[in-house]
Specification:
6-stranded mixed β-sheet, 4-stranded antiparallel β-sheet, 583 residues
Length: 583
Protein backbone atom coordinates (compact mmCIF):
# COMPACT_ATOMS: atom_id res chain seq x y z
CA UNK A 1 0.00 0.00 0.00
CA UNK A 2 1.40 3.39 -1.00
CA UNK A 3 2.05 5.86 1.76
CA UNK A 4 2.75 9.56 1.18
CA UNK A 5 3.25 9.08 -2.56
CA UNK A 6 3.99 12.16 -4.70
CA UNK A 7 0.32 12.74 -5.69
CA UNK A 8 -0.66 12.57 -2.03
CA UNK A 9 2.03 15.05 -1.09
CA UNK A 10 0.85 17.30 -3.90
CA UNK A 11 -2.68 17.26 -2.47
CA UNK A 12 -1.28 18.19 0.95
CA UNK A 13 0.84 21.03 -0.40
CA UNK A 14 -2.01 22.45 -2.48
CA UNK A 15 -4.46 22.22 0.43
CA UNK A 16 -2.11 24.01 2.81
CA UNK A 17 -0.58 26.33 0.24
CA UNK A 18 -4.00 27.57 -0.80
CA UNK A 19 -4.48 28.83 2.76
CA UNK A 20 -1.03 30.40 3.04
CA UNK A 21 -2.37 33.68 4.41
CA UNK A 22 -4.37 32.16 7.27
CA UNK A 23 -1.66 29.61 8.03
CA UNK A 24 0.97 32.36 8.20
CA UNK A 25 -1.24 34.57 10.37
CA UNK A 26 -2.12 31.67 12.66
CA UNK A 27 1.53 30.60 12.90
CA UNK A 28 2.77 34.12 13.73
CA UNK A 29 0.11 34.62 16.38
CA UNK A 30 0.69 31.09 17.70
CA UNK A 31 4.41 31.75 17.94
CA UNK A 32 3.58 34.90 19.92
CA UNK A 33 1.38 32.85 22.24
CA UNK A 34 4.00 30.16 22.78
CA UNK A 35 6.69 32.79 23.29
CA UNK A 36 4.53 34.39 25.98
CA UNK A 37 3.90 30.99 27.57
CA UNK A 38 7.65 30.30 27.65
CA UNK A 39 8.36 33.72 29.18
CA UNK A 40 5.89 33.18 32.05
CA UNK A 41 8.19 30.91 34.14
CA UNK A 42 11.13 33.17 33.33
CA UNK A 43 9.23 36.23 34.58
CA UNK A 44 8.07 34.33 37.67
CA UNK A 45 11.71 33.46 38.38
CA UNK A 46 12.74 37.13 37.98
CA UNK A 47 9.88 38.24 40.26
CA UNK A 48 10.98 35.71 42.88
CA UNK A 49 14.57 36.88 42.57
CA UNK A 50 13.64 40.57 42.93
CA UNK A 51 10.84 40.29 45.44
CA UNK A 52 11.92 37.38 47.62
CA UNK A 53 15.69 37.15 47.35
CA UNK A 54 16.38 40.89 47.00
CA UNK A 55 13.35 41.94 49.09
CA UNK A 56 12.34 44.71 46.65
CA UNK A 57 8.56 45.28 46.78
CA UNK A 58 8.54 47.78 43.85
CA UNK A 59 10.59 45.31 41.82
CA UNK A 60 8.16 42.53 42.67
CA UNK A 61 5.15 44.66 41.68
CA UNK A 62 6.81 45.75 38.46
CA UNK A 63 7.56 42.22 37.31
CA UNK A 64 4.10 41.06 38.35
CA UNK A 65 2.70 43.83 36.13
CA UNK A 66 4.88 42.67 33.27
CA UNK A 67 3.65 39.12 33.87
CA UNK A 68 0.02 40.30 33.75
CA UNK A 69 0.64 42.12 30.45
CA UNK A 70 2.24 38.99 28.99
CA UNK A 71 -0.81 36.95 30.06
CA UNK A 72 -3.15 39.38 28.30
CA UNK A 73 -1.04 39.26 25.13
CA UNK A 74 -0.73 35.49 25.00
CA UNK A 75 -4.46 35.11 25.67
CA UNK A 76 -5.43 37.26 22.67
CA UNK A 77 -2.76 35.76 20.44
CA UNK A 78 -3.99 32.24 21.25
CA UNK A 79 -7.58 33.18 20.45
CA UNK A 80 -6.83 34.72 17.07
CA UNK A 81 -4.24 32.08 16.19
CA UNK A 82 -6.77 29.33 16.79
CA UNK A 83 -9.34 31.22 14.71
CA UNK A 84 -6.96 31.65 11.76
CA UNK A 85 -5.80 28.02 11.95
CA UNK A 86 -9.35 26.68 12.12
CA UNK A 87 -10.39 28.91 9.22
CA UNK A 88 -7.50 27.58 7.15
CA UNK A 89 -8.44 24.02 8.06
CA UNK A 90 -12.12 24.20 7.17
CA UNK A 91 -11.49 26.29 4.05
CA UNK A 92 -8.88 23.81 2.77
CA UNK A 93 -11.32 20.95 3.39
CA UNK A 94 -14.06 22.86 1.56
CA UNK A 95 -11.87 23.46 -1.49
CA UNK A 96 -10.88 19.80 -1.56
CA UNK A 97 -14.54 18.75 -1.40
CA UNK A 98 -15.37 21.09 -4.26
CA UNK A 99 -12.44 19.73 -6.29
CA UNK A 100 -13.49 16.14 -5.62
CA UNK A 101 -17.10 16.83 -6.61
CA UNK A 102 -15.93 18.58 -9.75
CA UNK A 103 -13.76 15.59 -10.69
CA UNK A 104 -16.53 13.07 -9.99
CA UNK A 105 -19.02 15.09 -12.05
CA UNK A 106 -16.55 15.90 -14.84
CA UNK A 107 -17.91 15.01 -18.29
CA UNK A 108 -15.05 12.61 -18.99
CA UNK A 109 -15.97 10.50 -15.92
CA UNK A 110 -13.72 7.76 -14.58
CA UNK A 111 -13.41 8.97 -10.98
CA UNK A 112 -16.30 6.82 -9.76
CA UNK A 113 -15.12 3.61 -11.41
CA UNK A 114 -15.15 0.75 -8.90
CA UNK A 115 -16.38 3.00 -6.06
CA UNK A 116 -19.81 3.12 -4.46
CA UNK A 117 -21.41 6.57 -4.02
CA UNK A 118 -21.07 6.22 -0.24
CA UNK A 119 -17.32 5.65 -0.63
CA UNK A 120 -16.96 8.84 -2.63
CA UNK A 121 -19.00 10.70 -0.02
CA UNK A 122 -16.73 9.42 2.73
CA UNK A 123 -13.62 10.60 0.87
CA UNK A 124 -15.18 14.01 0.22
CA UNK A 125 -16.08 14.43 3.90
CA UNK A 126 -13.82 12.54 6.28
CA UNK A 127 -10.67 12.42 4.13
CA UNK A 128 -11.03 16.06 3.05
CA UNK A 129 -11.49 17.02 6.71
CA UNK A 130 -8.33 15.15 7.73
CA UNK A 131 -6.28 16.76 4.98
CA UNK A 132 -7.66 20.19 5.90
CA UNK A 133 -6.64 19.55 9.52
CA UNK A 134 -3.01 19.50 8.35
CA UNK A 135 -3.23 23.30 8.01
CA UNK A 136 -4.08 23.56 11.70
CA UNK A 137 -1.35 21.04 12.53
CA UNK A 138 1.18 23.20 10.70
CA UNK A 139 0.11 26.27 12.69
CA UNK A 140 0.47 24.32 15.94
CA UNK A 141 3.84 22.87 14.89
CA UNK A 142 5.33 26.28 14.07
CA UNK A 143 3.97 27.74 17.30
CA UNK A 144 5.32 24.83 19.36
CA UNK A 145 8.71 25.23 17.67
CA UNK A 146 8.81 28.86 18.74
CA UNK A 147 8.01 27.82 22.31
CA UNK A 148 10.81 25.28 22.30
CA UNK A 149 13.33 27.75 20.87
CA UNK A 150 12.44 30.44 23.41
CA UNK A 151 12.62 27.86 26.22
CA UNK A 152 16.02 26.68 25.05
CA UNK A 153 17.35 30.26 24.86
CA UNK A 154 15.98 31.01 28.36
CA UNK A 155 17.55 27.84 29.74
CA UNK A 156 20.86 28.73 28.06
CA UNK A 157 20.70 32.02 29.95
CA UNK A 158 20.17 30.06 33.16
CA UNK A 159 22.64 27.28 32.38
CA UNK A 160 24.58 26.18 29.32
CA UNK A 161 23.98 22.54 30.27
CA UNK A 162 20.21 22.95 30.53
CA UNK A 163 20.01 24.86 27.23
CA UNK A 164 22.06 22.29 25.34
CA UNK A 165 20.01 19.49 26.87
CA UNK A 166 16.81 20.98 25.42
CA UNK A 167 18.36 21.92 22.07
CA UNK A 168 19.79 18.43 21.51
CA UNK A 169 17.06 16.36 23.15
CA UNK A 170 14.06 17.96 21.41
CA UNK A 171 15.05 16.99 17.81
CA UNK A 172 15.68 13.44 19.02
CA UNK A 173 12.19 13.29 20.55
CA UNK A 174 10.63 14.66 17.35
CA UNK A 175 12.46 12.11 15.20
CA UNK A 176 11.31 9.27 17.46
CA UNK A 177 7.74 10.61 17.28
CA UNK A 178 7.91 10.61 13.48
CA UNK A 179 9.10 7.01 13.44
CA UNK A 180 6.30 6.02 15.81
CA UNK A 181 3.70 7.60 13.47
CA UNK A 182 4.53 5.27 10.55
CA UNK A 183 2.34 2.34 11.74
CA UNK A 184 -0.48 4.76 12.46
CA UNK A 185 -0.25 6.17 8.93
CA UNK A 186 -0.56 2.73 7.35
CA UNK A 187 -3.40 1.66 9.60
CA UNK A 188 -5.17 5.00 9.19
CA UNK A 189 -5.29 4.55 5.42
CA UNK A 190 -6.72 1.04 5.85
CA UNK A 191 -9.21 2.38 8.41
CA UNK A 192 -10.47 5.03 5.99
CA UNK A 193 -10.75 2.55 3.13
CA UNK A 194 -12.80 0.11 5.22
CA UNK A 195 -14.96 2.90 6.66
CA UNK A 196 -15.64 4.28 3.19
CA UNK A 197 -16.56 0.81 1.96
CA UNK A 198 -18.96 0.32 4.86
CA UNK A 199 -20.55 3.72 4.20
CA UNK A 200 -20.92 2.89 0.51
CA UNK A 201 -22.57 -0.46 1.19
CA UNK A 202 -24.90 1.12 3.77
CA UNK A 203 -26.02 3.81 1.31
CA UNK A 204 -26.47 1.18 -1.38
CA UNK A 205 -28.63 -0.99 0.89
CA UNK A 206 -30.77 1.95 1.98
CA UNK A 207 -31.34 2.96 -1.65
CA UNK A 208 -32.56 -0.55 -2.48
CA UNK A 209 -34.51 -1.11 0.72
CA UNK A 210 -37.87 -1.51 -1.01
CA UNK A 211 -36.50 -4.10 -3.38
CA UNK A 212 -34.79 -6.00 -0.59
CA UNK A 213 -38.00 -6.13 1.42
CA UNK A 214 -39.97 -7.15 -1.64
CA UNK A 215 -37.83 -10.20 -2.30
CA UNK A 216 -37.27 -11.03 1.36
CA UNK A 217 -33.52 -10.45 1.16
CA UNK A 218 -33.17 -8.44 4.38
CA UNK A 219 -31.28 -11.20 6.27
CA UNK A 220 -28.70 -11.55 3.49
CA UNK A 221 -28.31 -7.76 3.28
CA UNK A 222 -27.91 -7.45 7.05
CA UNK A 223 -25.33 -10.25 7.05
CA UNK A 224 -23.40 -8.55 4.26
CA UNK A 225 -23.36 -5.21 6.04
CA UNK A 226 -22.46 -6.83 9.36
CA UNK A 227 -19.44 -8.48 7.72
CA UNK A 228 -18.23 -5.30 6.02
CA UNK A 229 -18.92 -3.18 9.11
CA UNK A 230 -17.00 -5.72 11.18
CA UNK A 231 -14.01 -5.32 8.87
CA UNK A 232 -14.28 -1.54 9.29
CA UNK A 233 -14.48 -1.89 13.06
CA UNK A 234 -11.39 -4.11 13.12
CA UNK A 235 -9.44 -1.62 11.03
CA UNK A 236 -10.58 1.25 13.26
CA UNK A 237 -9.52 -0.62 16.40
CA UNK A 238 -6.12 -1.39 14.88
CA UNK A 239 -5.68 2.30 14.03
CA UNK A 240 -6.83 3.29 17.51
CA UNK A 241 -4.35 0.86 19.07
CA UNK A 242 -1.57 2.29 16.92
CA UNK A 243 -2.53 5.84 17.94
CA UNK A 244 -2.75 4.89 21.62
CA UNK A 245 0.60 3.11 21.45
CA UNK A 246 2.20 6.08 19.75
CA UNK A 247 0.73 8.58 22.22
CA UNK A 248 1.67 6.41 25.18
CA UNK A 249 5.28 5.96 24.11
CA UNK A 250 5.64 9.64 23.19
CA UNK A 251 4.17 10.66 26.55
CA UNK A 252 6.60 8.33 28.33
CA UNK A 253 9.57 9.74 26.41
CA UNK A 254 8.38 13.30 26.99
CA UNK A 255 7.91 12.71 30.72
CA UNK A 256 11.35 11.15 30.98
CA UNK A 257 12.88 14.09 29.14
CA UNK A 258 11.11 16.65 31.37
CA UNK A 259 12.17 14.75 34.50
CA UNK A 260 15.75 14.78 33.23
CA UNK A 261 15.64 18.55 32.70
CA UNK A 262 14.21 19.08 36.20
CA UNK A 263 16.78 16.73 37.73
CA UNK A 264 19.71 18.49 36.08
CA UNK A 265 18.32 21.87 37.13
CA UNK A 266 17.87 20.69 40.71
CA UNK A 267 21.44 19.39 40.93
CA UNK A 268 22.78 22.66 39.52
CA UNK A 269 20.81 24.59 42.16
CA UNK A 270 22.02 22.26 44.94
CA UNK A 271 25.62 22.90 43.92
CA UNK A 272 25.00 26.65 43.91
CA UNK A 273 25.59 27.03 40.18
CA UNK A 274 22.18 28.71 39.74
CA UNK A 275 20.11 30.85 42.12
CA UNK A 276 16.62 30.37 43.55
CA UNK A 277 14.98 32.45 40.85
CA UNK A 278 16.85 30.56 38.15
CA UNK A 279 15.77 27.25 39.69
CA UNK A 280 12.13 28.40 39.67
CA UNK A 281 12.51 29.43 36.03
CA UNK A 282 14.19 26.15 35.09
CA UNK A 283 11.52 24.01 36.76
CA UNK A 284 8.76 26.16 35.26
CA UNK A 285 10.30 25.88 31.79
CA UNK A 286 10.64 22.13 32.21
CA UNK A 287 6.93 21.92 33.04
CA UNK A 288 6.12 24.26 30.13
CA UNK A 289 7.95 21.96 27.72
CA UNK A 290 5.26 19.34 28.29
CA UNK A 291 2.87 21.50 26.26
CA UNK A 292 4.91 21.92 23.03
CA UNK A 293 6.15 18.33 23.11
CA UNK A 294 2.59 17.02 23.58
CA UNK A 295 1.45 19.23 20.73
CA UNK A 296 4.16 17.75 18.52
CA UNK A 297 2.80 14.29 19.32
CA UNK A 298 -0.65 15.49 18.20
CA UNK A 299 0.88 17.06 15.10
CA UNK A 300 2.54 13.75 14.18
CA UNK A 301 -0.83 12.00 14.50
CA UNK A 302 -2.60 14.58 12.33
CA UNK A 303 0.15 14.45 9.70
CA UNK A 304 0.02 10.65 9.58
CA UNK A 305 -3.74 10.65 9.10
CA UNK A 306 -3.55 13.59 6.68
CA UNK A 307 -0.98 11.85 4.49
CA UNK A 308 -3.08 8.69 4.36
CA UNK A 309 -6.22 10.66 3.43
CA UNK A 310 -4.32 12.76 0.88
CA UNK A 311 -3.23 9.58 -0.90
CA UNK A 312 -6.87 8.46 -1.14
CA UNK A 313 -7.97 11.85 -2.46
CA UNK A 314 -5.12 11.82 -4.99
CA UNK A 315 -6.34 8.47 -6.33
CA UNK A 316 -9.72 9.99 -7.19
CA UNK A 317 -8.39 13.30 -8.53
CA UNK A 318 -5.81 11.43 -10.61
CA UNK A 319 -8.19 8.74 -11.87
CA UNK A 320 -7.87 8.27 -15.64
CA UNK A 321 -10.89 9.56 -17.59
CA UNK A 322 -13.39 7.02 -18.91
CA UNK A 323 -13.28 8.82 -22.25
CA UNK A 324 -10.93 11.51 -23.60
CA UNK A 325 -12.48 14.96 -23.17
CA UNK A 326 -11.86 15.92 -26.80
CA UNK A 327 -10.67 19.32 -28.05
CA UNK A 328 -11.84 22.48 -26.34
CA UNK A 329 -15.14 23.78 -27.65
CA UNK A 330 -13.59 27.24 -28.16
CA UNK A 331 -11.34 25.81 -30.90
CA UNK A 332 -14.30 25.34 -33.24
CA UNK A 333 -12.04 23.85 -35.86
CA UNK A 334 -13.66 22.70 -39.05
CA UNK A 335 -12.45 19.26 -40.13
CA UNK A 336 -12.65 17.54 -43.48
CA UNK A 337 -15.22 15.05 -42.17
CA UNK A 338 -18.01 17.61 -41.98
CA UNK A 339 -19.17 20.94 -40.52
CA UNK A 340 -18.08 22.06 -37.09
CA UNK A 341 -20.22 21.55 -33.98
CA UNK A 342 -21.13 25.00 -32.73
CA UNK A 343 -20.75 25.01 -28.94
CA UNK A 344 -23.83 27.28 -28.76
CA UNK A 345 -25.80 24.37 -30.30
CA UNK A 346 -27.64 26.65 -32.74
CA UNK A 347 -25.99 24.92 -35.70
CA UNK A 348 -26.61 21.31 -34.59
CA UNK A 349 -28.83 19.57 -37.10
CA UNK A 350 -29.04 16.28 -35.22
CA UNK A 351 -27.87 13.76 -37.82
CA UNK A 352 -26.64 10.61 -36.10
CA UNK A 353 -24.64 7.84 -37.71
CA UNK A 354 -23.04 4.68 -36.38
CA UNK A 355 -20.46 3.24 -38.79
CA UNK A 356 -19.24 -0.30 -38.16
CA UNK A 357 -19.46 0.21 -34.39
CA UNK A 358 -18.24 -2.54 -32.08
CA UNK A 359 -18.35 -2.17 -28.32
CA UNK A 360 -19.16 -4.74 -25.65
CA UNK A 361 -21.92 -6.94 -27.11
CA UNK A 362 -22.33 -4.72 -30.20
CA UNK A 363 -20.77 -5.98 -33.44
CA UNK A 364 -20.42 -3.93 -36.68
CA UNK A 365 -23.51 -1.83 -36.02
CA UNK A 366 -24.52 0.49 -38.85
CA UNK A 367 -27.33 2.96 -38.22
CA UNK A 368 -28.25 6.26 -39.86
CA UNK A 369 -30.71 8.65 -38.22
CA UNK A 370 -31.73 11.69 -40.23
CA UNK A 371 -32.10 15.10 -38.60
CA UNK A 372 -35.55 15.43 -37.08
CA UNK A 373 -36.34 11.72 -37.40
CA UNK A 374 -37.93 9.72 -34.59
CA UNK A 375 -36.43 6.22 -34.58
CA UNK A 376 -37.35 3.31 -32.34
CA UNK A 377 -34.71 0.75 -31.33
CA UNK A 378 -36.05 -2.57 -30.10
CA UNK A 379 -33.40 -4.51 -28.18
CA UNK A 380 -34.43 -7.89 -26.74
CA UNK A 381 -31.12 -8.10 -24.84
CA UNK A 382 -30.81 -5.25 -22.27
CA UNK A 383 -26.99 -5.42 -22.58
CA UNK A 384 -27.26 -4.29 -26.21
CA UNK A 385 -29.42 -1.32 -25.19
CA UNK A 386 -27.06 -0.30 -22.37
CA UNK A 387 -24.04 -0.46 -24.68
CA UNK A 388 -25.81 1.69 -27.30
CA UNK A 389 -26.80 4.28 -24.69
CA UNK A 390 -23.23 4.45 -23.41
CA UNK A 391 -21.90 5.17 -26.89
CA UNK A 392 -24.52 7.80 -27.74
CA UNK A 393 -24.00 9.58 -24.41
CA UNK A 394 -20.26 9.14 -24.83
CA UNK A 395 -19.72 7.60 -21.46
CA UNK A 396 -17.74 5.08 -23.52
CA UNK A 397 -16.06 5.05 -26.93
CA UNK A 398 -16.38 2.22 -29.47
CA UNK A 399 -13.56 -0.27 -29.74
CA UNK A 400 -14.04 -0.15 -33.52
CA UNK A 401 -15.99 2.08 -35.88
CA UNK A 402 -17.30 5.56 -35.14
CA UNK A 403 -20.33 7.39 -33.77
CA UNK A 404 -20.96 10.63 -35.66
CA UNK A 405 -23.05 13.73 -35.04
CA UNK A 406 -23.66 15.92 -38.09
CA UNK A 407 -20.89 14.07 -39.91
CA UNK A 408 -18.23 14.45 -37.21
CA UNK A 409 -16.87 11.74 -34.97
CA UNK A 410 -17.94 12.32 -31.36
CA UNK A 411 -14.36 11.74 -30.20
CA UNK A 412 -13.28 14.78 -32.26
CA UNK A 413 -15.79 17.07 -30.54
CA UNK A 414 -15.69 18.79 -27.18
CA UNK A 415 -17.20 16.43 -24.63
CA UNK A 416 -19.30 19.12 -22.94
CA UNK A 417 -20.74 20.19 -26.28
CA UNK A 418 -21.58 16.56 -27.11
CA UNK A 419 -23.39 16.11 -23.80
CA UNK A 420 -25.29 19.36 -24.39
CA UNK A 421 -26.29 18.27 -27.91
CA UNK A 422 -27.18 14.64 -27.12
CA UNK A 423 -29.19 13.93 -23.98
CA UNK A 424 -29.43 10.28 -22.92
CA UNK A 425 -32.32 9.76 -20.50
CA UNK A 426 -31.60 6.47 -18.74
CA UNK A 427 -34.33 4.11 -17.66
CA UNK A 428 -33.34 4.39 -13.99
CA UNK A 429 -32.56 8.14 -13.91
CA UNK A 430 -32.76 9.52 -10.37
CA UNK A 431 -34.67 12.58 -9.26
CA UNK A 432 -33.17 15.27 -7.09
CA UNK A 433 -34.24 16.57 -3.73
CA UNK A 434 -36.51 19.55 -4.31
CA UNK A 435 -39.97 20.06 -5.78
CA UNK A 436 -41.56 18.38 -8.79
CA UNK A 437 -41.19 21.61 -10.79
CA UNK A 438 -37.54 22.04 -9.83
CA UNK A 439 -36.82 18.52 -11.07
CA UNK A 440 -38.54 19.16 -14.39
CA UNK A 441 -36.74 22.47 -14.98
CA UNK A 442 -33.33 21.22 -13.77
CA UNK A 443 -31.86 21.24 -17.29
CA UNK A 444 -34.20 23.73 -18.95
CA UNK A 445 -33.86 26.83 -16.82
CA UNK A 446 -36.84 28.71 -15.49
CA UNK A 447 -38.46 32.15 -15.70
CA UNK A 448 -38.26 32.92 -19.42
CA UNK A 449 -41.62 32.70 -21.23
CA UNK A 450 -40.26 30.16 -23.72
CA UNK A 451 -38.93 27.98 -20.89
CA UNK A 452 -42.25 28.16 -19.05
CA UNK A 453 -44.16 27.17 -22.17
CA UNK A 454 -41.77 24.31 -22.91
CA UNK A 455 -41.97 23.09 -19.31
CA UNK A 456 -45.75 22.96 -19.44
CA UNK A 457 -45.64 21.14 -22.77
CA UNK A 458 -43.08 18.63 -21.45
CA UNK A 459 -45.19 17.95 -18.36
CA UNK A 460 -48.28 17.41 -20.49
CA UNK A 461 -46.45 15.17 -22.97
CA UNK A 462 -44.99 12.97 -20.22
CA UNK A 463 -48.13 12.81 -18.08
CA UNK A 464 -46.46 14.71 -15.27
CA UNK A 465 -49.37 17.17 -15.20
CA UNK A 466 -51.55 14.27 -14.13
CA UNK A 467 -49.01 13.34 -11.44
CA UNK A 468 -48.98 16.93 -10.16
CA UNK A 469 -52.77 17.01 -9.88
CA UNK A 470 -52.67 13.94 -7.65
CA UNK A 471 -50.10 15.43 -5.27
CA UNK A 472 -51.03 17.61 -2.26
CA UNK A 473 -49.11 20.72 -3.40
CA UNK A 474 -49.13 20.10 -7.13
CA UNK A 475 -45.86 20.94 -8.88
CA UNK A 476 -44.58 22.45 -5.62
CA UNK A 477 -44.81 19.13 -3.79
CA UNK A 478 -41.43 18.27 -2.22
CA UNK A 479 -39.55 15.30 -3.66
CA UNK A 480 -37.15 13.41 -1.44
CA UNK A 481 -33.69 12.27 -2.57
CA UNK A 482 -33.86 9.95 -5.60
CA UNK A 483 -37.60 10.54 -5.75
CA UNK A 484 -38.42 7.90 -3.14
CA UNK A 485 -41.51 9.84 -2.04
CA UNK A 486 -43.09 9.15 -5.46
CA UNK A 487 -44.25 5.88 -6.94
CA UNK A 488 -42.27 4.20 -9.71
CA UNK A 489 -44.64 5.45 -12.42
CA UNK A 490 -44.63 8.97 -11.04
CA UNK A 491 -40.82 9.04 -10.93
CA UNK A 492 -40.62 7.85 -14.54
CA UNK A 493 -42.96 10.56 -15.79
CA UNK A 494 -41.17 13.34 -13.90
CA UNK A 495 -37.80 12.11 -15.22
CA UNK A 496 -39.19 11.99 -18.77
CA UNK A 497 -40.58 15.51 -18.40
CA UNK A 498 -37.13 16.69 -17.31
CA UNK A 499 -35.56 15.14 -20.42
CA UNK A 500 -38.19 16.63 -22.73
CA UNK A 501 -37.95 20.08 -21.12
CA UNK A 502 -34.20 20.16 -21.80
CA UNK A 503 -35.11 20.43 -25.51
CA UNK A 504 -31.75 19.15 -26.76
CA UNK A 505 -31.13 18.69 -30.50
CA UNK A 506 -30.87 14.92 -29.98
CA UNK A 507 -32.79 13.02 -27.31
CA UNK A 508 -32.24 9.33 -26.52
CA UNK A 509 -34.84 7.84 -24.19
CA UNK A 510 -34.57 4.36 -22.70
CA UNK A 511 -37.76 2.53 -21.62
CA UNK A 512 -39.57 5.58 -20.19
CA UNK A 513 -42.93 3.88 -19.54
CA UNK A 514 -42.25 0.50 -17.93
CA UNK A 515 -43.97 1.54 -14.68
CA UNK A 516 -47.13 3.14 -16.10
CA UNK A 517 -50.42 1.62 -17.21
CA UNK A 518 -51.30 0.95 -20.84
CA UNK A 519 -53.59 3.97 -21.22
CA UNK A 520 -50.97 6.35 -19.83
CA UNK A 521 -48.33 4.73 -22.04
CA UNK A 522 -50.31 5.48 -25.20
CA UNK A 523 -50.82 9.07 -24.07
CA UNK A 524 -47.11 9.49 -23.29
CA UNK A 525 -46.12 8.00 -26.66
CA UNK A 526 -48.30 10.49 -28.50
CA UNK A 527 -46.97 13.32 -26.34
CA UNK A 528 -43.34 12.46 -27.15
CA UNK A 529 -44.13 12.29 -30.86
CA UNK A 530 -45.89 15.67 -30.89
CA UNK A 531 -43.37 17.49 -28.71
CA UNK A 532 -40.29 16.10 -30.46
CA UNK A 533 -41.57 16.49 -34.01
CA UNK A 534 -38.71 17.89 -36.09
CA UNK A 535 -36.13 17.03 -33.41
CA UNK A 536 -33.96 13.92 -33.61
CA UNK A 537 -35.22 11.34 -31.14
CA UNK A 538 -34.27 7.72 -30.40
CA UNK A 539 -36.66 5.62 -28.37
CA UNK A 540 -34.76 2.58 -27.12
CA UNK A 541 -37.66 0.44 -26.02
CA UNK A 542 -39.59 -2.77 -26.58
CA UNK A 543 -42.93 -1.04 -25.99
CA UNK A 544 -45.35 -1.41 -28.95
CA UNK A 545 -47.09 1.85 -27.99
CA UNK A 546 -43.86 3.84 -28.19
CA UNK A 547 -42.54 2.08 -31.30
CA UNK A 548 -45.85 2.72 -33.07
CA UNK A 549 -45.32 6.53 -33.01
CA UNK A 550 -41.83 6.39 -34.53
CA UNK A 551 -40.99 7.21 -38.14
CA UNK A 552 -38.94 4.04 -38.33
CA UNK A 553 -38.00 1.15 -36.09
CA UNK A 554 -34.93 -1.09 -36.04
CA UNK A 555 -34.25 -4.40 -34.33
CA UNK A 556 -30.97 -4.61 -32.41
CA UNK A 557 -30.48 -8.33 -31.88
CA UNK A 558 -27.35 -10.28 -30.95
CA UNK A 559 -25.34 -7.06 -31.12
CA UNK A 560 -26.37 -6.22 -34.72
CA UNK A 561 -29.08 -4.33 -36.59
CA UNK A 562 -31.04 -7.21 -38.15
CA UNK A 563 -34.20 -5.46 -39.35
CA UNK A 564 -35.44 -1.96 -40.15
CA UNK A 565 -38.75 -0.51 -41.31
CA UNK A 566 -42.02 0.87 -40.04
CA UNK A 567 -43.28 -0.69 -36.82
CA UNK A 568 -46.49 -2.10 -38.30
CA UNK A 569 -44.67 -3.68 -41.22
CA UNK A 570 -42.03 -5.25 -39.00
CA UNK A 571 -44.70 -6.68 -36.70
CA UNK A 572 -46.25 -8.50 -39.67
CA UNK A 573 -43.11 -9.45 -41.57
CA UNK A 574 -40.33 -9.98 -39.02
CA UNK A 575 -40.85 -12.79 -36.51
CA UNK A 576 -37.88 -11.84 -34.23
CA UNK A 577 -39.17 -8.25 -34.05
CA UNK A 578 -42.68 -9.42 -33.32
CA UNK A 579 -41.38 -11.67 -30.57
CA UNK A 580 -39.33 -8.84 -29.06
CA UNK A 581 -42.13 -6.28 -28.85
CA UNK A 582 -45.29 -8.35 -28.44
CA UNK A 583 -44.22 -10.99 -25.91
Amino acid sequence: MRVADPPGRDVLWRAVGGQRRDVTLGAVLGMGHQTGEALVPVLIGVAVERGVVDGSVPGLLFWLGVLAAVYVGLSFSFRFSARAGERASVTAAHHLRAELVGRVLAPEGGADEGRLPGELTNVATEDAKRVGAVAMALVVALAATAGLVVSAVALLRVSLVLGLLVLLGTPLLLWLGHLLSRPLERRSETEQERAARASGVAADLVAGLRVLKGIGAEPAAVARYRRISGDSLSATLRAARAEAWQNGVVTLLTGTFIALVALVGGRLAARGDIGLGDLVSAVGLALFLIGPLTEFAWVNTELAQGRASAARIAEILGAPPAVPPGPASTDRTTGDSGPELDPSLHAVEGRLRLRGVSYGPLRDVDLDVAAGEIVGVAAPDPADAVALLGLLGRSADPSAGAVELDGRDLTALDLKAVRAAILVADHDADLFEGTVLQNVTAAAGAGAPAAVTLTRAAMAASGTDEVARSLPDGVDTPVTARGRSLSGGQRQRVALARALAADTPVLVVHEPTTAVDAVTEVRVAAGIRDLRRGRTTLLVTNSPALLAVTDRAVLLQDGRITATGHHERLVHTCAPYRTAVLT
